[in-house]
Write a structure and sequence with these properties.
Low-confidence stretches: 190-194
Helix content: over 70%
Strand content: under 5%
Order of helices and strands: HHHHHHHHHH
Largest sheet: none
Distance between the termini: 22 Å
Number of helices: 10
Radius of gyration: 22 Å
Number of strands: 0
């Protein structure tokens, strides 16, 4: 590995960490704002989760392009993926820590509140769809038997599961974005000057 390549990799790593922290802060601020407005809103309003995901993806694209510009304007798919993966890992860790603090210390009753809100919302929708009580009970059994509450309680197993799930999602997103924002240096540029101009 040449000194130039080492310098490029080091710059990619440092910029990716910086941008990952920025995206993490944005995600936490958005979730904290929703929590202040209504603690169970993130569970009952599914479109909010989609909106936050879109914001995160847009930020990953923009900040990924920013990294590319700052390292000379060109990078391989592997370099792009590594940068986005670093951002995704940092984002996952920050959101897991935030959720743990919220569920464990800020509002320990949040799992029960979310369960009750979801049970009421789902029961209402199913009733309006003219389903029988037996059918409603079948669809809502996860919320009636405590299974949902157990899944979102702040335990080590749940946090690890959430981290792995989030990481897999970020890997998929990183692969897609990396394929879109990779930019190969022109052959003439490689031959005449291996160091692309910023």
């Amino acid at each position: 590995m040449t000194e130039q390549t080492q310098t490029k990799n080091s710059l990619i790593n440092s910029l990716s960490v910086k941008h990952g922290l920025l995206i993490g802060v944005v995600a936490i601020v958005l979730n904290a704002a929703l929590f202040v407005i209504d603690p169970v809103m993130q569970f009952t309003a599914w479109w909010l989760s989609i909106l936050i995901l879109i914001i995160i993806i847009v930020l990953l694209v923009l900040l990924g392009i920013d990294v590319r510009k700052k390292i000379g304007g060109y990078w391989t798919f592997g370099e792009a993926f590594k940068s986005l993966f670093i951002m995704g890992v940092i984002l996952s860790v920050m959101t897991i820590v935030y959720n743990f603090v919220i569920f464990k210390y800020v509002d320990p009753q949040l799992p029960e509140k979310a369960n009750a809100a979801l049970l009421e919302s789902l029961t209402t929708r199913l009733s309006n769809a003219n389903l029988s009580q037996d059918q409603i009970d079948q669809y809502t059994k996860t919320f009636q038997n405590g299974e949902f509450i157990a899944k979102i309680r702040p335990t080590l197993a749940n946090e690890l599961k959430a981290f792995v799930t989030g990481l897999i999602m970020h890997i998929i997103i990183a692969l897609i974005i990396a394929a879109c924002i990779k930019k190969k240096a022109p052959v003439t540029l490689i031959e005449t000057d291996p160091t692309p101009e910023a």
